[in-house]
Automatic annotation (TrEMBL):
Transmembrane segments: 46-66, 127-146, 183-211, 326-346
Record's bilayer topology term: Multi-pass membrane protein
GO biological process: lipid biosynthetic process
Cellular compartment(s): Membrane
Protein name: Protein ECERIFERUM 1-like
Major localization listed first in the record, in broad terms: membrane
Species whose genome carries this gene: Solanum verrucosum
Source lineage: Eukaryota, Viridiplantae, Streptophyta, Embryophyta, Tracheophyta
Amino acid sequence: MASKPGILTEWPWTWLGNFKYVVLAPFVGRSIQSLLNTEDGSKIDIGYLIIFPFLLFRMLHNQIWISLSRYRTAKGDNRILDKTIEFDQVDRERNWDDQILLNGLLFYYGYMKLEQSHYLPIWRSDGIILTTLLHIGPVEFLYYWLHRALHHHFLYSRYHSHHHSSIVTEPITSVIHPFAEHIAYFLLFSIPLLTTVLTKTASIVSFGGYITYIDFMNNMGHCNFEIIPKWMFSTFPPLKYLMYTPSYHSLHHTQFRTNYSLFMPIYDYIYGTLDKSSDTLYEKSLERQGKSPDVVHLTHLTTPESIYHLRLGFASFASEPYTSKWYFWLMWPITLWSMMVTWIYGHTFTVERNVFKNLNLQTWAIPKYRVQYFMQWQRETINNLIEEAIMEADQKGIKVLSLGLLNQAIGVDEKLNNNGEVYIRRHPQIKVKLVDGSSLAVAVVLNSIPKGTTQVVLGGHLSKVANSIALALCQGGVKVMALREEEYKKLKSNLTPEAAINLLPSKTYNSKVQMIKSMEKNIWLVGDGLNEDEQLKAPKGTLFIPFSQFPPRKTRKDCFYFHTPAMITPKHFENVDSCENWLPRRVMSAWRIAGILHALEDWHEHECGNMMFDIEKVWKASLDHGFQPISVASASESKV
């Protein structure tokens, strides 16, 4: 929002929310009806029919730029600015498709009002030449002066400051303007379109090509990485007057009073508003190599739909905790295509870049889904991908690699890689430290249990984390009731006789249930595999605290579900603009934080296999570095 919002700032359909696309429904329906009503032998107006598909193409075009930009800036090569993007910018830019809706409405309206726009030919050379000349002349010239006017205090404070709220730009920043400003831009860009229509030189290619050119240049110019190779300007030197670069426009967002031109810098040269550091920044950005990270967190895809929730996917989805949307089924062709790509693509990819204190952090993802980790025939492939990532990290001199989600224990038996221990045995010479994060996960769960709790119920599959939690609680005098008989026997075999006194078998559950109901808080510590029948045994108001990587399926409406082990990140943790799976904003999983602490504290041991660090030591380190526990009171916000 501008600092002093002027009239026509809000979009007319803002109140419709996600249903704003219905404004196009009457026009789309009418175009389909025109096709159905076409009699045999009569001519079909292709230009009218492809308006809506062209709008969809524009959205796809923009999304490709968003994904490419986020991937490249996460890698770091050719990055222009090191400043970070935060959630407020993502929220401000989530309506980037509004301008496409506006264009669609105006295209349909123009078609209905202008007879000359009917039955456009596919190609007309004179129309394409005229469009090009009109853009180079009137459009670029008038935009330059409009842009300078928008930087006058009166208009800037009421309109254009909204766009300049983003110092570090993303491709979609290019179209983030108030409604009134977009009206002015449309009138400007319609000069070539209306002229060719009225002179009957317009064609489908001239229309579609010109709008695609505008989208391409807009997106490219707002990337935070340099993409234009130097040889283009060396081969044709006058090109620097006819095409800007991302670094050229980036200076406009940092300096504000230079580089006003639309896509062609010639008018900045003519009127003396060229930033003198344009060439220097361009060359530095081209030469810049991404810094090797100090810490890498290795994660993987969860569900087929999770591809949209990645930071490289839809920015607005990634900025919220992951939940399945009803309209995802409409996108099944894209989902299926992405699944095919992940099955074929055989290498980890960079998802995110963060900075904390003196550490450069990256998140890498294995291109496999959760379900594939439980397929016996996929395990060897996945293990090889994890091993390749570890060796790549070691080759790059990365200090710590933390294993996230199922990368640390494939399958419920945890036997295939044994929390990463198998990789240490195969490559004892590696310098990168492997961290499964179990110690911090245990510390987070223990500190999530309300003070004064005298007994808890333990349910779900056992794991390294579950065993350590049960041991710590029993040694601390807290009664632990194992929900399953087989889990009780496994736990008891790992406890000392003194601690085993506080471990209760599942057969005592019914006799103890009345006592549990009378407790101030009914606490269930749950892991993977907790089924619906087991959840139904819990008394009303029970607080389920997961110790697993994945949250339990929420089947009880009268109970509370806490987050999987996680902590709130410090305010100075940079470049946080997406949520980690199902966790809230600026909340990070304990397994991911553990790798960061490992590097900050300069611990020289691996934490994998059966290795566990001192729980109190790890917990204190997390607090000392500014990570904060999530209060149990916030669990009420997660009530089903």
